[in-house]
Amino acid sequence: MKDSAQNKRLLGGVMLAAVVASLCCVIPLLFAGAGVTAIVVAGKFAIIRPYMLALTGLLLLAGFYYAYRPIKVACEPGSACATPASRRRARLGIWLATAFAGLFVLSPYWSAALIRSTAQKPNSPALQTAGVPVEKTTLRISNMVCEACAAVIENDLRAQAGVRSARVIFSESAAEVEYDPSQVSLPQIRRVIEKAGYQVADTIPASGKEG
Question: What whole-number distance in Å separates Cα of residue 65 and Cα of residue 144?
Answer without folding.
Answer: 37
